[in-house]
């Protein structure tokens, strides 16, 4: 996962990008259920053959690419470009936000059964703090609030700070940008691992 900060980034367009991205959200609302189904099918393929079918791998990689581009454009992953994301599962290498996952020629059959829940659990706990509004518990034992990726937690707070700075100064602090992209990089590495696309355990960074 990589991203390049748009040098001509508008100070106010982030206020409407979430609205402009609605057509993408509609498409992704269909792609993500398909992503889950394809991952399950691929899981059976790995169990029996030790291989992730290439056509299915290209599809799941494409869904992650599309999601990252839209997230980076809108206010949920980076607000780092004003360039509208393309409607494609392809690589779109000219776009400021890119994502590539190396195709694995062989995957462990045994890990398929445990890596998506047991082995990835420590990452889930950390990412939960990054992306959810997990601030405490009610008297009934329920969490105050839980939101989708980028809507709360530390990542959401950093995005809000970046948006306010951009609005008033027309500048996006480079260190803040690097931190936000780094968090997104961590999240997508864990998604790829949990989706059985690699056996390489994601680093804690």
State the helical fraction.
40-55%
Distance between the termini: 13 Å
Order of helices and strands: EHHHEHHHH
Helix/strand class: mainly alpha
**Helix run count:** 7
Low-confidence stretches: 134-150
Write the layout of secondary structure elements.
Elements (H helix, E strand, L loop, with lengths): L1 E2 L10 H7 L1 H28 L4 H20 L23 E2 L16 H5 L1 H11 L21 H17 L4 H21 L11
Antiparallel strand pairs: 1-2
Task: Describe the fold and architecture.
The chain is mainly α. Helix content is 53%, strand content 2%. It has seven helices and two strands; from the N terminus they run βαααβαααα. The chain has a two-stranded antiparallel ribbon. The longest helix has 28 residues, at 22-49. The two termini are 13 Å apart.
List keywords for this structure.
205 residues; mainly alpha; 7 helices
Concise description?
The protein is mainly alpha-helical and 205 residues long. 53% of the residues lie in helices and 2% in strands.
């Amino acid at each position: 996962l990589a991203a390049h900060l748009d040098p001509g980034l508008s100070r106010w367009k982030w206020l409407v990008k979430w609205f402009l991205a609605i057509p993408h959200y509609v498409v992704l609302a269909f792609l993500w259920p398909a992503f889950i189904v394809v991952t399950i099918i691929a899981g059976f393929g790995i169990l029996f053959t030790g291989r992730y079918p290439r056509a299915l791998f290209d599809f799941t990689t494409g869904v992650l690419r599309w999601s990252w581009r839209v997230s980076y454009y809108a206010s949920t992953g980076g607000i780092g470009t004003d360039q509208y994301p393309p409607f494609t599962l392809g690589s779109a290498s000219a776009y400021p936000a890119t994502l590539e996952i190396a195709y694995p020629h062989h995957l462990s059959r045994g890990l398929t059964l445990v890596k998506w829940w047991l082995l990835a659990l420590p990452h889930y706990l950390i990412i939960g703090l990054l992306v959810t509004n997990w601030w405490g518990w009610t008297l009934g034992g329920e969490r105050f609030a839980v939101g989708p990726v980028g809507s709360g937690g530390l990542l959401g707070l950093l995005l809000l700070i970046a948006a306010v700075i951009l609005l008033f100064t027309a500048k996006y602090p480079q260190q803040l940008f690097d931190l936000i992209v780094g968090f997104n990089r961590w999240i997508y590495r864990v998604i790829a691992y949990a989706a059985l696309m690699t056996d390489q355990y994601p680093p804690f960074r």
